[in-house]
Amino acid sequence: LNKDNYLEFSIINNPRKELQTNLYDNFETLIFNPFIRINNYIDEYYNSLDFGLGLTMVEKVVKSHKGKIKVTRLLESSENAEEKLMITVEIPTIR
After folding, report:
1. Rounded distance, CA 8 to CA 15, Å?
2. Rounded alpha-carbon distances, angstroms, from residue 18 to 8, 41, 48
3. For the CA atoms of 94, 72, 27, 91, what is the dihedral angle to 10 degrees?
4. Burial of 31: CB neighbours in 10 Å, binned 0-12, 13-18, 19+
5. For the sheet containing 6-13, what is the strand order?
6. Beta pairing class for 6-13 and 68-75
7. Nearest Cα to 43, choosing from 16, 64, 22, 68?
8. Which of 31, 58, 87, 94 is the residue whose CA sits 20 to 30 A from 7?
9. Number of other CB atoms surrounding residue 69 within 10 Å
């Protein structure tokens, strides 16, 4: 719980380098629009539709619970620095 009585959790993911990515300058807001995808690769191994609706649905669920969701770019501070994406979700707790 954070100081505002929100349950907060973050997921950090690094986009696969070998895939073509669409990290636009303003992708932090675009990524929640329907049919927007970070990469254009579809892995046939996984049984998924890959329409670009996942984060749109997550945002709707989070907002329906009066929560917040945001995406942030992270850059490692190591010798082989890689860009990563962090999605943070905050959901209010019931008192």
Report:
1. 23
2. 31, 10, 20
3. 0
4. buried
5. 6-13, 83-92, 68-75
6. unpaired
7. 16
8. 31
9. 17
Tokens 């996942």 found at: 54
DSSP type of residue 6: E
The residue assigned the tokens 């962090």 is 86
Helix (H/G/I), strand (E/B), else coil: 7: strand
Q: What token pair was written down for 25?
A: 């300058």
Q: Which pLDDT tens digit goes with each residue over 26-78?
A: 677 778 888 777 666 566 666 666 677 788 899 999 999 999 999 888 877 77
* Distance linking the first and last C-alpha atoms of the chain: 12
pTM: 0.70
